């Protein structure tokens, strides 16, 4: 079987899809991952074939900035919808011009795409392929009204107007444990739970520190600090978090993100380790809690390891994800205005001293473990139409 994955060119969009792509690869299917320029090397580094289909993330952002040079002039309630329609919606119109012809020439049997990359839906329709819509984790119930705002225009342009209604019958891969959120992107009726995992680990990939070095860390608790892969250049947030954590008896492991410079944070004491980028699957088993920007994949990775979580939202959907996590009981959140060193220290101390946070995280860890594996979901997909795999 030929399986085409099409995704927005960012780690946070690509990585959640890799468990299913990896399962397809291991099952012997022909797998292609189509994305923008920023992720093509990352895909190929992981031994998948990749198509570079524009626009790149940088190009999409520049095109949006040319139309909306100052997002702050938009009414606050309309900023997220405006940005999503202007970036993701506009990019789908452009990406389809490159993706659809390549897909029709290759003729995939199955197309997998997230709601952030809807050119994939059109490619599936025109190829007569089956389709899976891939979730990310926590997203607002009304998220389709934002991401689908220009979908009708896209479908009309390619002569498939009926797809604007039939897309909701597509199986929607739901990565959220029920205790976190039951209605992420609620417009999709055929919801298929799938265990998300916490990172794609390449053969031979290891932590940058030896087991002896990690064992020598002096404190009982270890806190991981990350700002993900898009907001990791904000070194001021890292420094503030380190200032706060310096008041606590904890080890700290900081990842400054792909292409980041660990030296940018300056010299650190022996119980603080700083590196560029590490798969959560390798790192989080050594941690007791996590502080992050609150991207969906990071939230799910922390829950997959049963870790309580302090969210310091920086942008995008993170201000919407944070309250979902807080309501679940597995974490706390501080806005940028609140996130000074003392507040970070106080919140982290609460996460580590109040057992209810860890108990909530471990409850969702058990829920995730009980969800069908990517291999199981793929097996049902390739055998028959999906309907609520369990």
Percent of residues in helices: 40-55%
Strand share of the residues?
5-15%
How would you sum up the global shape?
A: globular
CATH superfamily of the largest domain: Glycogen Phosphorylase B
Q: Could you name the CATH class of the largest domain?
A: Alpha Beta
Strand order of the largest sheet: 3-2-1-4-5-6-7
Report the mean per-residue pLDDT as an integer.
Answer: 92
Distance between the termini: 23 Å
Number of domains: 2
What would you say this structure looks like, in words?
It contains 17 helices and 13 strands. It is an alpha/beta fold and 390 residues long. It has two domains: 2-195 and 371-383, Rossmann fold (3-Layer(aba) Sandwich), CATH 3.40.50.2000; 211-368, Rossmann fold, CATH 3.40.50. Mean pLDDT is 92; it is low at 385-390. Helix 2 crosses helix 17. The strands form two sheets. A seven-stranded parallel beta sheet has the order 3-2-1-4-5-6-7, sandwiched between helices.
Spell out the blueprint of helices and strands:
Blueprint: E1 2-6, H1 11-14, H2 18-26, E2 30-35, H3 37-45, E3 49-52, H4 57-67, H5 76-106, E4 110-114, H6 119-127, E5 130-134, H7 143-147, H8 151-157, H9 163-166, E6 172-174, E7 191-193, H10 211-215, E8 221-226, H11 235-245, E9 250-255, E10 272-275, H12 280-283, E11 289-292, H13 296-304, E12 309-311, H14 318-328, E13 331-333, H15 341-353, H16 355-370, H17 374-383
Parallel strand pairs: 1-2, 1-4, 2-3, 4-5, 5-6, 6-7, 8-9, 8-11, 9-10, 11-12, 12-13
